[in-house]
């Protein structure tokens, strides 16, 4: 199942186009894309048998973030071995956790303003919580995932490292620095939900290319580790970490510039396309 936020309304995405969830369900479910996660099990049970014959073509330019207002955003640093190595750190023994503030969320297309700094790209697979998780065993971690989407952990390295200790959350929370989309895909849609290809290109040049099987802490492991401390709530998002290939680790370092186009993709989900200026 694939769902999306089409100009502020919850839709199912089918081969024939978009199906408005409120209209197709006769009002059983509202139009709010964020509210659906509170009724996720009920919604998915309905959606799998829903009449999608009235699907309509849609404009990808009006797709917004599929999770527009999460209560909690978790982001994981150094969660791919090669990225930890290129960053000059040891392989973490525990997840490196920070947050991105909700005002940084944007959709899968459009322009992102560049602050005065050194702005970097970080492709990520984003997991969205569909059922409250607290003190969950790793073996049951996937049971709490509503779906997966594409994300970018855009980062201003100047703000991030302006003072000791590093200000991860501030450097990664400028407006537009948490793009997500284009759709949310439920885990059963993937041939192997633990081994998904992802990457991004900058002005057509591949800069990151990896697979989630290289994660140090898998999605179920992250859910177990995070939920050991606090409840994960329906609609919360987890940016699961970026692979190697970021700009600051290149020689010479390379950062986003005005006019650049960043295309971010995850196999089985789709792509995001952003320009900067």
What are the SSEs and their pairings?
Layout lengths: L1 E5 L2 E6 L2 E4 H4 L15 H8 L15 E2 L8 E5 L3 H6 L9 E3 L6 E2 L2 E4 L6 E2 L2 E7 L15 E8 L2 E2 H4 L7 H4 L6 E8 L11 E6 L2 E7 L7 H9 L9 E3 L21 E6 L3 E7 L1
Parallel strand pairs: 5-16, 7-13, 8-18
Antiparallel strand pairs: 1-2, 1-4, 1-13, 2-3, 5-6, 9-12, 10-11, 10-16, 11-13, 14-15, 14-17, 17-18
Architecture overview:
- InterPro entries: FAH, Fumarylacetoacetase-like_C, Fumarylacetoacetase_C_sf.
- Belongs to the FAH family.
- The protein has 277 residues and is α+β, with helices and mostly antiparallel strands.
- It is built from 6 helices and 18 strands.
- It has 2 domains: 62 residues, no CATH class; 210 residues, Fumarylacetoacetase-like, C-terminal domain (Fumarylacetoacetate hydrolase, domain 2, Alpha-Beta Complex).
- 13% of the residues lie in helices and 31% in strands.
- Strands 1, 2, 3, 4, 5, 6, 7, 10, 11, 13 and 16 form an 11-stranded mixed beta sheet that branches.
- The longest helix is centred in the C-terminal third of the chain and has 9 residues.
Fraction of residues in helices? 10-25%
Report the average pLDDT across residues.
97
Structural class: alpha+beta
Find the CATH superfamily of the largest domain: Fumarylacetoacetase-like, C-terminal domain
